[in-house]
């Protein structure tokens, strides 16, 4: 039988499940319950599985440093403080470590910013193996606040429950998979209709509102912005970026990828292979435009085309002139590209996640159609890509700053050519053809990026936060 653990009236403790490796706690056997400092307390989750998230300021002398924490709610109870005030508090259960011992402790959450100790341990926190000696202090090993440097906190950060927003207007396979996988991992995933969001702009507290209420703080936003609402959708993402919310794909990358001309200019700047491409506004330049693209056969493509719509193969010079004339008559913006004949109606979709290719498939168009889009009836199967294709796909996603991207490549005789970089790639086709859990890999990235690290606020804002 092990010896009892002896505690003084103050001790260093760790709360590993909350990502708090060092806290100085006051041990008070006169108090029944234990309390943990928490600010910005916010409930989330479902009625069946309620959770709470909060900010913890572990160092009393440094209110500008905060650790984001979350935990399941085990109870709500009224607690009367030493000054006689009664408060309804959330209760969580988390493991506490002292020296080489670890056991679960119930904690009530409350603002202890005016207290010297960020944690109070009441008598309910101790079992028969603990002896408290009120006239002594620090009977157990001393810890250090140095562990709250960014690098060290990442090493001990827990797999905490996250609150995630999926910006989507469609109840399709991709949206359902994102919700399903997130909830399976214990996160709260909320689908937000982008067009029902609106923005409150001011210098001190920019906000995103939805259905008459301010949206809560999210750990991450997964944009699924449809091509038809790109300007408004990217405005909403910019607002989340202004607030400081991490978005898997940023507004600038989505905007650039959606405009075909802009996208090819980004690729050209990074010297990434692509079909010869030309653009002109004047009808007098039609002949020169076609010559720059290498002549017929050629592709004529609307700048905001998607899913193969607005993409035409002109097999002869006369056909190309007719298509260009028709597009100009509609006042449509378009570009022309060389036709990569050796691709034979096939392309490669590389799914790039957090800078690396996690899956790749070959897409083949239906008989007689040069387009290989799955939405148009094309077929897909897993394919092994070359090192050059992998490098090209990863460089293309990096050029747009996209955490999640579908990069479409053509296999040309002189190397891979990027056709498109898709900032909202569908998951159904690539998961089905490759057999890989893309949604799971995406959440692996979200969990890595959203792990709690110190949030350093300015001392001025920290000092006025409670006023």
UniProtKB/TrEMBL annotation:
InterPro entries: Asp_endopeptidase (IPR008503), ATP-grasp (IPR011761), ATP-grasp_RimK-type (IPR013651), ATP_grasp_subdomain_1 (IPR013815), Peptidase_aspartic_dom_sf (IPR021109), Rimk_N (IPR041107), Rp_bS6_RimK/Lys_biosynth_LsyX (IPR004666). Gene3D superfamilies: 3.40.50.20, Acid Proteases, ATP-grasp fold, A domain, ATP-grasp fold, B domain. GO terms for cellular component: cytoplasm. Its cofactor is Mn(2+); Mg(2+). The keyword Nucleotide-binding applies. Pfam families: RimK, Rimk_N, Zn_protease. SUPFAM superfamilies: Acid proteases, Glutathione synthetase ATP-binding domain-like. Transmembrane segments: none annotated. Keywords: ATP-binding, Ligase, Magnesium, Manganese, Metal-binding, Nucleotide-binding, Protein biosynthesis. One of its GO terms (biological process) is SOS response. GO terms for molecular function: ATP binding; metal ion binding; ribosomal S6-glutamic acid ligase activity. Residues 264-447 form the ATP-grasp domain. The keyword Cell inner membrane does not apply. In the C-terminal section; belongs to the RimK family. This is Probable alpha-L-glutamate ligase. It comes from Palleronia salina.
């Amino acid at each position: 039988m092990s010896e009892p653990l002896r505690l003084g009236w103050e001790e260093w403790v760790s709360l590993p499940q909350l990502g708090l490796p060092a806290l100085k706690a006051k041990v008070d056997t006169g108090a029944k319950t234990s309390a943990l400092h928490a600010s910005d307390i916010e409930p989330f989750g479902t009625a069946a599985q309620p959770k709470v998230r909060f900010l913890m300021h572990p160092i009393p002398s440094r209110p500008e440093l905060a650790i984001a924490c979350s935990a399941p709610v085990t109870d709500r109870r009224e607690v009367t403080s030493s000054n006689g005030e009664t408060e309804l508090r959330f209760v969580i259960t988390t493991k506490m470590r002292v020296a080489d011992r670890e056991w679960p402790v119930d904690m009530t959450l409350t603002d202890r910013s005016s207290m010297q100790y960020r944690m109070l341990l009441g008598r309910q926190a101790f079992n028969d193996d603990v002896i408290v000696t009120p006239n002594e202090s620090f009977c157990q090993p001393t810890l250090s606040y140095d562990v709250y440097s960014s690098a060290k906190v990442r090493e001990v950060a827990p797999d905490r429950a996250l609150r995630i927003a999926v910006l989507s207007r469609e109840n399709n396979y991709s949206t359902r998979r994102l919700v399903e996988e997130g909830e399976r991992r214990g996160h709260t995933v909320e689908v937000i209709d982008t067009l029902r969001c609106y923005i409150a702009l001011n210098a001190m507290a920019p906000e995103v509102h939805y259905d008459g209420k301010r949206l809560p703080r999210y750990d991450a936003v997964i944009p699924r912005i449809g091509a038809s609402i790109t300007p408004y959708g990217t405005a909403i993402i910019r607002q989340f970026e202004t607030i400081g919310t991490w978005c898997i794909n940023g507004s600038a990358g989505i905007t650039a990828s959606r405009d075909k001309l802009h996208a090819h200019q980004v690729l050209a700047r990074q010297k990434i292979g692509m079909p010869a491409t030309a653009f002109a506004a004047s009808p007098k330049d039609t002949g020169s435009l076609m010559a720059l693209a290498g002549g017929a056969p050629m592709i004529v493509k609307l700048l905001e085309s998607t899913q193969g719509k607005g993409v035409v193969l002109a097999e002869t010079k006369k056909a190309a002139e007719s298509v260009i004339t028709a597009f100009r008559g509609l006042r449509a913006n378009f570009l022309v590209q060389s036709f990569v004949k050796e691709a034979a109606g096939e392309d490669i979709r590389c799914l790039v996640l957090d800078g690396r290719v996690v899956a790749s498939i070959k897409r083949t168009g239906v008989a007689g159609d040069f387009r290989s889009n799955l939405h148009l009836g094309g077929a897909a199967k897993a394919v092994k890509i070359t090192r050059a294709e992998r490098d090209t796909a990863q460089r293309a996603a990096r050029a747009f700053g996209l955490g999640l991207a579908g990069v479409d490549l053509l296999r040309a005789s002189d190397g891979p050519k990027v056709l498109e970089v898709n900032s909202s790639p569908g998951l159904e086709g690539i998961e089905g053809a490759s057999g890989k859990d893309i949604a799971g890999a995406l959440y692996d990235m979200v969990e890595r990026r959203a792990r709690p690290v110190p949030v350093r606020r300015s001392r001025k804002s920290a000092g006025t936060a409670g006023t």
